[in-house]
């Protein structure tokens, strides 16, 4: 499922400037400039999902490219960063759709900054550290809400019937995820 979401480009986002206002405010050197921040994020590698601890799963995301433009009255800077992160992923199911929740375990960056004379690299790194959680929350909110499919039985002679899954749960094991379900025909 996650590969299909990535391959369709659904893991690339343009964020409204308000998304990162708290991140800017958390870095005093930038907050004093009253800047705006325009951010796009592109995921260049597919996410990798595997078993985690205690029945949860682990989601690895690599090749997340952050392109940001920082504007203020005294400064315009372009920030290009590649962020890699390891996140804890818990997958729930509410009877209709999968519901993932993400928490960040670690991250690293490769950083290029243009036009930011007077800003220290450490200042930009602090900003990126503050930006990781809002980016991860966006991924979690977008990855949730994918309905478990039902199948029309028209091809096998039942034009008004569908095969659906009932009594479902998701479990992580050593070989990946297992969707436990009872099939029903409606």
Computed Rg: 21 Å
Look at the structure and give the CATH class of the largest domain. Answer: Alpha Beta
Our measurement of the CA-to-CA distance between the termini, rounded to an integer number of angstroms, reads 25 Å
Helix run count: 4
CATH superfamily membership of the largest domain, which one? Bactericidal permeability-increasing protein, domain 2
The poorly predicted ranges are: none
Q: H/E series, N to C?
A: HEHHEEEEEHEEEE
CATH architecture of the largest domain: Super Roll
Largest sheet: 7 strands, antiparallel
Describe the global form. Answer: elongated
Structural class: alpha+beta
**Beta-strand proportion:** over 45%
CATH topology of the largest domain: Bactericidal permeability-increasing protein, domain 2
Mean pLDDT: 74
Residue share in helix: 10-25%
**What's the number of domains?**
2
Structure overview:
This protein has two domains: 2-147, Bactericidal permeability-increasing protein, domain 2; 151-185, no CATH class. The protein is 20% helix and 49% strand. The protein contains four helices and ten strands. It has helices at 2-7, 21-25, 28-31, 121-143; strands spanning 13-15, 36-43, 48-51, 57-71, 76-93, 97-114, 146-147, 151-152, 162-173, 176-185. Strands 1, 2, 3, 4, 5, 6 and 7 form a seven-stranded antiparallel beta sheet that branches. A three-stranded antiparallel beta sheet has the order 8-9-10, with no helix packed on it. A hairpin with a 2-residue loop joins strand 9 and strand 10 (176-185). The longest helix has 23 residues, at 121-143. The chain is elongated and about 70 Å long. It starts with a helix and ends with a strand. The model has no long low-confidence stretch (mean pLDDT 74).
């Amino acid at each position: 499922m996650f590969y299909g979401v990535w391959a369709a480009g659904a893991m690339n986002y343009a964020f409204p400037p308000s998304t990162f206002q708290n991140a800017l405010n958390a870095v005093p050197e930038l907050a004093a400039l009253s800047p705006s921040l325009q951010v796009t994020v592109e995921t260049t590698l597919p996410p990798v999902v595997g078993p985690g601890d205690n029945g949860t799963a682990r989601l690895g995301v690599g090749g997340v490219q952050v392109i940001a433009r920082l504007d203020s009255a005294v400064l315009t800077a372009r920030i290009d960063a590649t962020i890699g992160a390891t996140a804890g992923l818990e997958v729930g199911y509410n009877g209709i759709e999968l519901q993932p929740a993400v928490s960040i375990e670690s991250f690293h960056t490769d950083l290029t900054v243009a036009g930011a004379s007077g800003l220290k690299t450490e200042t930009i790194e602090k900003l990126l550290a503050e930006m990781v959680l809002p980016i991860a929350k966006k991924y979690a909110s977008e990855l949730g809400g994918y309905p478990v499919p039902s199948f029309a039985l028209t091809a096998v002679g039942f034009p008004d019937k569908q095969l659906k899954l009932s009594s479902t749960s998701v479990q992580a094991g050593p070989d990946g995820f297992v969707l436990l379900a009872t099939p029903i025909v409606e």
